[in-house]
Write a structure and sequence with these properties.
It is a single chain. This protein is α/β, with parallel strands linked by helices. The protein has one domain: Aminopeptidase (3-Layer(aba) Sandwich), CATH 3.40.630.10. The protein is built from 9 helices and 9 strands. A 9-stranded mixed β-sheet has the order 1-8-7-9-6-4-5-3-2, sandwiched between helices. α6 links the parallel β7 and β8. The site of D-phenylalanine has 14 residues, from α3.
Length: about 325
């Protein structure tokens, strides 16, 4: 795995320098297992299956040059996920929007079982920046969420609410797809969404274990967040709360008054000595030295972080809507 200690900023429109980290929420000795804590019968998501989706996204980027908004590699990424979800029995919709003279796409997949009056939504942005394959940012969140959705289907989960998964377009250009989606909902449809969980960068090579701060951002929800925290607590992995503000796709939901939560393993910020002590990895290096760079490829993923986050997503789904 290639790791570089310097970071070339790439002029993306989402400056993330304003991210604030607040104190540790737990600090317990790490344990090797990633099995879910016993109380909820959530499945252990196969990280090999998540990696297989990442391989597909990498090969799409290899074929088309990238997976960015308006480029054929983005639409090919949408087609790959939609094919998987359709075959598993999801009801899928591709929502088109126009941005910068190019057609953008959101993929929405609803699981047919479950009471329709209440909806739990989970999302990840599927687009990358133009100059790389975008495997950690955000193939990681996209692939983890896809595998959780496929596991919902495999287990034929009968949830207590509708489960709706979404993969957003044009996040890298200013949260365009997710904002378009929320704007397209009626007041009634917005009111039916009881929460939105966001997964953006969950396999950073020099990983940190960040959970969205319920207090530090508009409409952060402690109740929605809780199972994600509980999952890491159960593994004995310390987490820190992070205030992501308007820097990922939960923002449009938060603006609409919908409770939000999520996880994150870090971008271009530097890991401190204290963080390396509790999480391993390299103090003084970025969490993701390849953030927005051409080296954000298959080698730029921490398998353990990806595995833990995929399992945490499943644990949150099964805790919130039963199984
Ligand atoms: N929004 C991410 C990106 O796509 O560049 C970076 C990021 C993700 C920042 C999650 C904070 C939290
Ligand atoms: Zn990005």
């Amino acid at each position: 795995m290639t790791r570089r200690s310097t970071l070339t900023r790439t002029g993306h429109v989402l400056a993330i320098a304003g991210i604030l980290f607040s104190g540790a929420t737990a600090a317990v000795a790490a344990e090797p297992s990633t099995a879910a804590p016993a109380a909820v019968a959530a499945p252990d998501i196969s990280v090999e299956d998540v990696q297989a989706h990442l391989q597909e996204l990498q090969s799409i980027a290899d074929t088309h040059g990238n997976r960015a908004h308006g480029e054929p590699g983005f639409k090919a990424s949408i087609d790959y996920l939609q094919g998987q979800l359709d075959a598993a029995g999801f009801t899928t919709t591709v929502q088109e929007f126009d941005f910068f003279g190019q057609t953008g796409y959101n993929l929405v997949a609803e699981w047919p079982a479950g009471e329709a009056s209440e909806v739990l939504m989970l999302g990840a942005h599927l687009d990358g920046v133009p100059n790389g394959p975008g495997i950690n940012d955000n193939g990681s969140g996209s692939a983890a969420l896809l595998e959780v959705a496929l596991t919902v289907a495999e287990q034929d989960l009968q949830p207590s609410k509708k489960l709706r998964f979404a993969w957003w377009g044009a996040e890298e250009l200013g949260l365009v797809g997710s904002t378009h989606y929320v704007d397209s909902l009626s007041d009634e449809e917005k009111a039916a969404i009881t929460g939105y969980l966001n997964f953006d960068m969950v396999g950073s090579p020099n990983a940190g274990y960040f959970v969205y701060s319920p207090d530090g951002q508009p409409d952060g929800s402690a109740e929605l967040q809780q199972p994600l925290n509980d999952y890491f607590d159960g593994l004995g992995v310390a987490t820190e709360e992070v205030e992501i503000g308007g820097r990922s796709d939960h923002a449009a939901f938060a603006d609409a008054g919908i409770p939000t939560a999520g996880t994150f393993t870090g971008a271009e910020e530097t890991k401190t000595a204290e963080q390396a002590e509790k999480w391993g990895g390299t103090a003084g290096d970025a969490f993701d030295p390849c953030y927005h760079r051409s080296c954000d490829d298959l080698d730029n993923v921490n398998t353990e972080a990806l595995d833990r986050n995929a399992d945490a997503i499943a644990y949150a789904v099964w805790t919130h809507v039963g199984g």
